[in-house]
């Protein structure tokens, strides 16, 4: 009996130790031991690893919906130790019982691509652990100080709960040292002194460590803390707690045995055979560095100018059999540091490979070599001869030429962009050319903004693998379902905005500005009141100046009576001398801290008391919505797992107006004025409540041109649909005297203006952007402030924009449902056309049927090279037709621009010019069609209560049919006058009218020309 009673517990222990076999559940879930897979759609699978087997079912702050997907058919099986899950679009393989996801145990196949979505760097005892490769909370990666290793360092620790957490592996039990390599120069608070952080292991009680001052930010030193550890994996966290001073940079850390020197060999993850390995992830020694200063690279950077003595090694796993395989090097070969521009030679496992020249350092090419490899695991090593090879290396493809190249990208803002100071660094988002993406949600808080439960030493991963191939629209739809669709703004927000950083009064708007709009026949929907309206302090005061706005509510009521909506500009800090400061500090329970600005206090929006104090300051300033203009003040959020921009923007959307107007994706305190980089929690929640203001660009042709590609790039990377640029640019570069005067510190100054051609072309571009917002820093942006030709052009296109509001609002509602942005690159509609990818910086689609190719060169007549996607395209202004899959040089004066309607597309607009959208019913609509085509369009309309109607309009060659509206319909529009403009093949147009038709009846309009 004793023997039997002993065997049963042993068997039970063995059963617990072994992973459970993978089985297909009657739901969408497959569990294999500590790994769980949830098949959400044919192109989306959740991959979750929980070392404690405690899987997370609650929604996260990013991922708000996993249940809204239709049931997906899939197959799963276990064969040869691998779990394989197959949908109609992708195959995911996981090696059963192999632990947390990493490069060699989780494989994705989709659309001809093989990829390793997960990369996991575990730092064993004695290995260098680069901080930038570990989990970060609230901090950016920077590289602006010399002497760091790897691609950069984790910068700042400037806010409570900023942290970096490394996964380390103790190779034996016992006493260990955690060594941290850091720099501690003069901080943003002006102090140069010893700083503190807190170090914890596996979530246990933290111990405070002191980091003495270093000579400057390029002086890197080490500090050591002793810990007792059992053998195995552990999580080592460096955190700025409320008791710490922070304000340091951390380059790396290492787990060491006592007396072990600080290592130079860094920990890496392997690269799986059949995938493309990022060069920056390999083991690098010698003079070459990791960089990101040239566009077009894959991953997070590249190995920059490999000189003599450079050695790059990459561990390769899962080679199926011994043999000779193609290895593809992606490289750039411009003018080297030796002044030469010539073919170069590198050695690949000792084999010489010639790399021909490329046009410059931003032009990437590939070269292929046949390399013998043994079965299983081995190393690939690229070295340079002693004379140097002077090339940049981006990727190493192992039996593949596929590159993981981002389509589009995003950043917090374009502040300071001129178009001549280098392309702004965009950060990859959802779409990639090889058709896959991992949305790593591990660090996101739960949906209620509380951190996920701490799991001690147990590993945890939570990520969503997208495998969409070239079905980019489906990927955007999956993203919208998973993380929420982009915010649908009120319809008036898609009209014309007037904004100017200049001291204005209620009387100015009432007696001069709006009457001038009306006099000159220019529409206006949104009036932006910039910062000078404030009392006590023009920057961060919290009351409206009674001398400028004697009746704030009356001003807003006046605006509403004129069919306008208004916003007020906010800077998020408060002066200690402000009359509202004592009340704010009392509400915050004394926790408001001094900021870096003069005598100002800033808010931690992650603290409920400080958030309440901040929001209460807004109560005495009536407005329709708020413009949070982050700059220079330093407020932020200590919430873990929630990006500060996203958190405060959500609060603004609840406060008033239903949406925030702000920068996004990051945090001011994480990276300077513009805070251009993203935070690890990602951009996925931002679009649900934010109209993204892209910051202060300069008034140049280059800056204007740069926004063409940026709008669609951000849309496809994040799903953001509402993007607002400063039309005309913010900062003057011309010095041309404008039409108004103002006082600046007692000095009388003139406003500035753009050259007439630049102004006219920028307004043309703005008319087809998601938001049409004229803005400047004390600059003229109104049509009547320019010469007759520029005035006529701007007036024409601002009126066209106003007429297009019903069409644009329909596209915005579609974006909210489908995730496909209003302004989109052609490859969303034509993924198989190479030209659709090469033209993203010069043209875009507004919806699927309108092609826009702005003129971006000076002169009275400009031209641009246009690629026409498949189909037939008709010039909206001239009627000239172009066949698809062709190129043409199109010229235009200021009265027109290259805008084309696809045959089969139906463009709906107001029939007449109107002063604004809200006071003018859409009872007269015009539909533009091309003769003899077939197509359809469904017009979306709603009211303030979001009771909606959809009107389907179809064209069948010579007939246009308006089908009865479905759903609620605006009471102001019981009847409609329909006008159809028929664009003929010879460039002429015909107009057919159907007047006084009920919105609920079927209207058939014959397009046959009278004989």
UniProtKB/TrEMBL annotation:
<dbReference type="Pfam" id="PF17137">
    <property type="entry name" value="DUF5110"/>
</dbReference>
<dbReference type="InterPro" id="IPR051816">
    <property type="entry name" value="Glycosyl_Hydrolase_31"/>
</dbReference>
<dbReference type="InterPro" id="IPR005084">
    <property type="entry name" value="CBM6"/>
</dbReference>
<keyword id="KW-0732">Signal</keyword>
<keyword id="KW-0378">Hydrolase</keyword>
<dbReference type="Pfam" id="PF21365">
    <property type="entry name" value="Glyco_hydro_31_3rd"/>
</dbReference>
<dbReference type="InterPro" id="IPR000322">
    <property type="entry name" value="Glyco_hydro_31_TIM"/>
</dbReference>
<feature type="domain" description="CBM6">
    <location>
        <begin position="275"/>
        <end position="399"/>
    </location>
</feature>
<dbReference type="Pfam" id="PF01055">
    <property type="entry name" value="Glyco_hydro_31_2nd"/>
</dbReference>
<dbReference type="GO" id="GO:0030246">
    <property type="term" value="F:carbohydrate binding"/>
</dbReference>
<dbReference type="InterPro" id="IPR048395">
    <property type="entry name" value="Glyco_hydro_31_C"/>
</dbReference>
<dbReference type="InterPro" id="IPR013780">
    <property type="entry name" value="Glyco_hydro_b"/>
</dbReference>
<dbReference type="Pfam" id="PF03422">
    <property type="entry name" value="CBM_6"/>
</dbReference>
<protein>
    <recommendedName>
        <fullName>CBM6 domain-containing protein</fullName>
    </recommendedName>
</protein>
<comment type="similarity">
    <text>Belongs to the glycosyl hydrolase 31 family.</text>
</comment>
<dbReference type="InterPro" id="IPR017853">
    <property type="entry name" value="GH"/>
</dbReference>
<keyword id="KW-0326">Glycosidase</keyword>
<dbReference type="GO" id="GO:0005975">
    <property type="term" value="P:carbohydrate metabolic process"/>
</dbReference>
<dbReference type="InterPro" id="IPR008979">
    <property type="entry name" value="Galactose-bd-like_sf"/>
</dbReference>
<dbReference type="InterPro" id="IPR033403">
    <property type="entry name" value="DUF5110"/>
</dbReference>
<feature type="domain" description="CBM6">
    <location>
        <begin position="127"/>
        <end position="256"/>
    </location>
</feature>
<feature type="signal peptide">
    <location>
        <begin position="1"/>
        <end position="24"/>
    </location>
</feature>
<dbReference type="GO" id="GO:0004553">
    <property type="term" value="F:hydrolase activity, hydrolyzing O-glycosyl compounds"/>
</dbReference>
């Amino acid at each position: 009996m004793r023997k039997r009673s002993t065997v049963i517990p042993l068997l039970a222990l063995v059963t617990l130790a072994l992973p459970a076999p993978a089985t297909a559940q009657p739901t969408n879930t497959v569990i294999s031991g500590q790994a769980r897979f949830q098949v959400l759609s044919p192109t989306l699978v959740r991959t979750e690893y929980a070392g404690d087997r405690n899987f997370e079912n609650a929604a996260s702050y990013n991922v708000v919906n996993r249940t809204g997907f239709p049931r997906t058919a899939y197959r799963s099986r276990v064969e040869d130790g691998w779990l394989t899950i197959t949908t109609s679009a992708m195959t995911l393989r996981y090696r059963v019982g192999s632990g947390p996801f990493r490069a060699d145990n989780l494989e994705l196949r989709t659309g001809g691509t093989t990829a390793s979505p997960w990369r996991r760097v575990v730092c064993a005892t004695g290995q260098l652990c680069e901080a930038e490769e570990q989990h970060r909370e609230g901090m950016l990666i920077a590289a602006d100080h010399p002497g760091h290793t790897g691609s950069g360092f984790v910068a700042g620790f400037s806010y409570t709960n900023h942290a970096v957490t490394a996964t380390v592996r103790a190779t034996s039990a016992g006493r260990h040292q955690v060594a941290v390599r850091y720099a501690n120069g003069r901080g943003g608070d002006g102090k140069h002194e010893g700083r503190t952080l807190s170090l914890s292991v596996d979530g246990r009680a933290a111990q405070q460590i002191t980091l003495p001052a270093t000579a400057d930010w390029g002086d890197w030193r080490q500090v050591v803390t002793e810990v007792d550890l059992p053998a195995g994996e552990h999580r080592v966290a460096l955190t700025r707690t409320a008791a710490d001073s922070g304000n340091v940079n951390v380059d790396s850390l290492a787990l060491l045995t006592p007396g072990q020197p600080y290592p130079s060999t860094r920990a890496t993850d392997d690269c799986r055979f059949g995938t493309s390995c990022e060069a920056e992830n390999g083991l690098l020694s010698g003079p070459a560095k990791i960089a990101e200063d040239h566009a077009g690279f894959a991953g997070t950077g590249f190995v920059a100018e490999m000189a003599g003595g450079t050695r790059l090694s990459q561990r390769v796993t899962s080679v199926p059999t011994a043999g000779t395989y193609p290895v593809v090097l992606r490289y750039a070969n411009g003018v080297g540091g030796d002044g030469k521009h010539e073919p170069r030679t590198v050695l690949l496992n000792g084999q010489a490979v010639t790399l021909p020249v490329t046009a410059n350092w931003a032009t990437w090419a590939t070269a292929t070599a046949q390399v013998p490899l043994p079965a299983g695991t081995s190393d690939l090593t690229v070295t340079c001869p002693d004379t140097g090879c002077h090339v940049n290396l981006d990727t190493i493809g192992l039996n593949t030429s596929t590159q993981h190249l981002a389509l589009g990208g995003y950043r917090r803002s374009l502040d300071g962009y001129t178009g001549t100071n280098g392309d702004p660094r965009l950060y990859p988002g959802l779409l990639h050319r090889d058709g896959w993406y991992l949305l790593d949600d591990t660090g996101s808080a739960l949906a209620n903004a509380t951190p996920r439960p701490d799991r001690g030493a147990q590993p945890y991963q939570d990520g969503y693998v997208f495998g969409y191939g070239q079905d980019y629209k489906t990927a955007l739809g999956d993203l919208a379902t998973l993380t929420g669709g982009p915010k649908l703004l009120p319809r008036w927000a898609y009209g014309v905005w007037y904004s100017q950083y200049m001291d204005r009064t209620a009387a100015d708007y009432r007696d001069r500005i709006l009457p001038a709009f009306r006099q000159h026949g220019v529409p206006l929907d949104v009036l932006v009141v910039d910062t000078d309206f404030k009392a006590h302090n023009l920057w961060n005061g919290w009351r409206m100046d009674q001398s400028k706005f004697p009746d704030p509510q009356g001003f807003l009521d006046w605006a509403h009576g004129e069919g306008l909506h208004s916003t007020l500009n906010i800077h998020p800090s408060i002066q200690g001398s402000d009359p509202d400061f004592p009340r704010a500090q009392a509400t915050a329970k004394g926790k408001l801290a001094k900021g870096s600005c003069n005598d100002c206090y800033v808010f931690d929006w992650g603290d409920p008391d400080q958030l309440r104090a901040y929001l209460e300051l807004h109560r005495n300033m009536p407005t329709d919505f708020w413009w949070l203009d982050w700059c220079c003040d330093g407020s932020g959020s200590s919430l873990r797992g929630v990006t500060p921009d996203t958190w405060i923007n959500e609060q603004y959307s609840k406060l008033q107006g239903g949406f925030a107007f702000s920068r996004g994706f990051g945090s001011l305190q994480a990276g300077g004025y513009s805070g251009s980089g993203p935070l690890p929690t990602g951009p996925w929640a931002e679009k649900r409540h934010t109209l993204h203001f892209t910051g202060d660009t300069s008034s140049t042709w280059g800056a204007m041109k740069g926004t063409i590609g940026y709008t669609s790039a951000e849309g496809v990377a994040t799903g953001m649909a509402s993007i607002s640029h400063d039309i005309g640019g913010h900062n003057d570069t011309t010095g041309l005297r404008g039409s108004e005067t103002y006082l600046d510190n007692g000095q009388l100054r003139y406003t500035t203006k753009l050259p007439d051609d630049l102004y006219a072309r920028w307004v043309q571009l703005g008319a087809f952007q998601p938001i049409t917002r004229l803005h400047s820093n004390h600059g003229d942006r109104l049509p009547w402030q320019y010469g007759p030709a520029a005035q006529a052009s701007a007036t024409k296109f601002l009126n066209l924009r106003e007429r297009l509001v019903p069409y644009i609002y329909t596209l915005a509602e579609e974006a909210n449902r489908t995730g496909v942005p209003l302004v989109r690159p052609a490859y969303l509609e034509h993924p198989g056309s190479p030209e659709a990818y090469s033209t993203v910086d010069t043209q875009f689609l507004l919806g699927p049927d309108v092609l826009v190719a702005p003129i971006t060169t000076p002169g009275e007549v400009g031209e641009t090279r246009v690629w026409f996607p498949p189909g037939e395209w008709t010039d909206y202004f001239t009627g000239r037709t172009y066949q698809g899959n062709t190129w043409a040089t199109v010229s235009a004066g200021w009265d027109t621009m290259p805008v084309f309607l696809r045959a089969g597309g139906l463009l709906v607009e107001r029939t007449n010019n109107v002063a604004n959208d809200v006071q003018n019913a859409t009872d007269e609509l015009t539909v533009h069609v091309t003769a003899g085509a077939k197509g359809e369009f469904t017009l979306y309309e709603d009211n303030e209560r979001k009771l909606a109607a959809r009107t389907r309009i179809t064209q069948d060659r010579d007939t246009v049919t308006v089908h009865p509206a479905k759903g609620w319909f605006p009471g102001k529009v019981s009847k409609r006058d329909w006008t159809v403009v028929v664009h003929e093949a010879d460039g002429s147009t015909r107009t057919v009218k159907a007047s006084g038709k009920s919105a609920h009846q079927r209207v058939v309009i014959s397009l046959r020309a009278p004989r």
